[in-house]
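Homework-ish question, so no full write-ups if that breaks the rules, but can someone show me the predicted structure for this set?
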Amino acid sequence: MTGEYPIEITGLRKEYGQFVAVDNLDLSIKKNSFTGLLGPNGAGKSTTLKILTSLINATSGSAYLNGVDIAKNPKGALMGVGTVVETPEFYLYLTPRETFRYIGEIIGMSTEAIVSETNEILEKVKMTEWADKKMGTFSKGMRQRIALGQALLNDPSVVILDEPTSGLDPRGMAEVRDILKNLRNETKDLTVLMSSHMLHEVSDLCDRVAIVNHGKLLIHDDIGKVIDKSGVRTIFIKILGEPDKEDITKISGLPNVANAERYGNDIEVRFNGDVAEQADFFRAVDGLGIKAYSLSEGDNGLETTYLDLIKESR
Amino acid sequence: MKEGIADDLRQSYVVMKNEMTKFFRGKRMLLFLALIVTVLLLITVLPYALGSSLSKDPKEIIVTYVSFVSLIVLLAATLFASVTIVSEYEERTALILFTRPIKKSSIFLGKFLASLVIGVAFVGLYYLSVALISLIVAGGVDVGLAKSLLLALMYVIGTFGVAMLISSVMKKASTSTIIVFVILLMILPIISAIVIVSQTPDITNLDSYYDAWWMLDQAANAITSVVSTTVDIARESLVMVTWGLVPTLIAFILFKRREF
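A: Not a homework solution, just the prediction itself:
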């Protein structure tokens, strides 16, 4: 329970009759990290986050927010914590501004602070022009942006997000992700724990990942290290014109390349090595004389690791 | 510690304010207001429309009006207290409110007080209207009105306690509303009737009727009878407050344990 880990979970267990949703889970979230909580449906992600936000009680074990036991002192633990759990609904008779005032007053913010932060946050979540309209007519994406906004009131040091883009259309997803990216880039003292189904979303937003299945933690580390642990990455090489056999043969002969094959107009490389070896590989490709104009890592670096871990844990 | 309690109460006040905003901006409030106005208009205007008039005796005027108070209180419990907790779960607003640094006791207290304030305000408004009508028509107000008001307020506590209990365990606001209405309007009077009949040795003899004084609906009869007869106000008040506090306490325990 040091300041190094604003979110700490020890031996957490949640049973629903015979079903064990969370099974002796230990997880410590590093200060100022943006951690993705990944797992298939029923893995225990939402249950864990609901325990952390005091919506349900654990059967056994403990969860701490900023060193305060959520079961013993939920009010103290949730101080300085912003949350968006599932897709919350709002008081439809209130406007976003009134909602922020309500939440701000509950937190104990001064009227001046509520007014100034509301304007700032509404700007941040691009909802300024809707600030004084009743939320009954808002789309799901707009409500999710308001949900994110209210979670940011009073500059929380910890934000807990449960599938923040779930159920949104592509535009809504992109908007919410943009807000989260800005949050990550612009806020210094902030620890985020975010559950998601979407691997590319976690790759894109998070610097760390925790993968759970059957309520158990399978791995928790920096995303790069998690991918390294599986050893296999997919790299796409785009070249001018169509790739020919000679190009593919040259690439296949480079160190750590498990396989290279044509994938449309690209070359898909299965690379077996860590990030340092990947850097060497990029340099080596440059020296092959093939007209490569883009080398990028496929999202499925994390996907491969994820699928392997889930498969092993069955 | 004191700061903690002061902050809990402050948060209850914030919740209460929001809950009252919900009531004031909702259709239920308009419906209830229309109902009260209709009751007052019917009692006041109908006798004149039928070629008769209101009694000139303040006591008789008050009895006429307060005989509808039980129904008004019952409807207030049905329209307001029955939805106050369950709506947070049904409308998923609990995901916003309950994940904030606020104790469930503060939420519960704020919501209970909001319902109570609305109930008390409407009952007070109704009695104020009756007093004005009595003053205009009969030139005075009988002291029985004040006693009746006191008992009506106790009945507000009693019925709202029952409504809070139902609201704390139900999943849907509409179901909660119907159940509260049925319990207060039918189930409790049926239980009272059965108890009275089963405990009365001679059903044809009115003097031998069993007094089920401990039932909420029976105690509520005192709201009207106190104007014209002698009533044990302390006992009836105690019964109604007990009917309010015990279910409220159970409601709070269930609400505190309830998971989302």
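Now go work out the reasoning yourself. Hint: The interface with chain A takes residues 7, 10-11, 14-15, 18, 21-22, 25-26, 91-103, 259-260 of chain B (CB under 8 Å).
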